[in-house]
Structure formats: C-alpha cells, structure tokens
Amino acid sequence: MNTRLILLISTLLLGAPGTACIDADGPRELYEDDLGEDAGTQDMGLDSTSDMQVGPDMALEDSGQDQNTEDQGQPGNCVPNRDGVIERDEVTLRAGLNAKFKVSTRAEFNTAPEEVEGESVWDLSGDFDGDSLTIVELQEPDSFWFSADFPDATYVTQLSADSDLLGIFKSSETGLELLGVASPEEGFTQTKLEYDPPVEVLKFPIEEGSQWETESSVSGTALGVFSLYDETYVTREAGQGILKTPFADFPVTRLRVDLERVVGFVTTTTRQYVWVSECFGTVGTVRSSDNESDIEFSSPSEIRRIAP
Q1: Where is composition skewed (Polar residues) in this entry (predicted)?
Q2: Taking the model in full, what pTM does it have?
Q3: Is 140 helix (H, G, I), strand (E, B) or coil?
Q4: Closest CA to 138 of 161, 157, 166, 160
C-alpha cells in the first residue's frame, strides 16, 4: 500500500466553480477572461472544443448541454441575496465549468477571523510565499477508462496541481458526493479507489448550524497495489462573514471539515476550512498539516483562493 498516495487522496477537499461571482460593488458575471481559454494546461482539464459561451450580458453557460439534466441546481443569472442560506440552486455543479485559483503550500495564515465592524473577515487577498496559479475545471466523465465503474458520475476533476489523480463526483438535488479517485490512464500502476458509501462533500442548504458526517470504506488499487482503509468526514458550519480574495470580496459561509483516516493500526487526522459563496460555490480553502491539534491554526499545508 502506498501511504504517500493515500495521504494525498485523503486530504482533498473539493469544490466547484459556479456561474457568477461577486465583487466589492455587488454581483458581477463571469467573462471570458475570468475562465481561461486553454482548458487543459494545468489542472482538471476541459475539452478545448467545448461550446462554452460567455458574454457581457450573460452568466457562464454551455450551449452544448441540457442544463436541466446536467445540473439539478441551475441558477441562470444568479444574484446573491445574502440571506445567510446557500441553497442548492445557488451553486452550479456540472461538467464544463472552470475558475482560476492561487495556491500556496508554504505560507503562514491564521484561520481565526478578524472582526471588522461586527462582521467576521478572512483576508486571503494578498500574495503568499510560493503562490502558483491553477485552473480548476470540471470534466465530462464519459471519456475516461473508469467511467463504466462510476455510471452516476456527473464530472471529474484533477485533485491537485502537482498530481494527475482524478476525483470522481456526483451532483444531485441535495448536494455533491465523492464517488472515487482514479488515475487518468489504466495499466499496471493504475489507481482506482471507490468510496462506500460516497463522501458527502456538500449538503444543501448550507446555513448556520449545518452539520453532516460520512463514514466510508475506501477500496481498490493505488498505484497497482490493493488498498483498503477507512475514513470519517465530519463537516460543520464554522461562521459567516466576508472572504477577501485576489478576485473579489465574497459574502461566505465557512465550513470546517475534520477527517479521520485509519490505515491498519495508524490513525491520522486533518482539518480543512472551506469558504462557500452564493452563486459561485467554493471560493477558498485552507488545509492543515496532519494531526493538527488546534481548531484554528496558523501553519497550513495548503492555501487556495479564487483569482482573476
């Protein structure tokens, strides 16, 4: 069993770009410059022949897909109402969407919020040591070698900029589930792992007091070697406020995800914070190092936030 590979897979936290975002002056729509034209250059590649069309008077859409069947929560020209509740129809989860994120794996950041005029604020807008730009994109699952094993999959994404492993997801009327993880190619050293039951990554509505838990058995092959281990994900609402990013300031609900992984007789814990915004989904994440003891921590293993 490849322990390093299991560590990589088990510390993922996944979010998806949606159809609109917010700047400091209110709602704005995604333009072509926000999306990037080369879908496969860095992370979670999208077919460059996609019929995606974006203009100044429309939110992101894919004219080559039936949006009523591709995603159960199509917001159209979504305008955030800032009611403190993120409904399913305020986050679009389907193949063909993408966004840019700045990522740092060696920066300091205190996850505790600052209080500004009675509102919680997290500031990820500045430059961090080791920043790199990653394109997060959602890809059609049908063309992959493992598609027959995941017939309910909605989209596939690459897990990180420094690994080619793919996360396999299903979106539904109630949320987003992680079904499995696989390598992009099959062969002697292939990876194909299934979660039983699937991990509930997002569960709607997301609001004050939201909490859910998944206990899952992970089985399959990792780099061609049979692997079997257990994971428990506990996700809870952890504050509302403003997340400042290089792209814009977003009204957000913060989620805290605590992961306990048991491989043989070894238990490892990690923690991750996820900031979710109406109409745009996940706009920032901060992940702890293994076995972090503090609820709010200042030496993360990764910082990720949306960027222009």
Answers
A1: 65-75
A2: 0.80
A3: coil
A4: 157
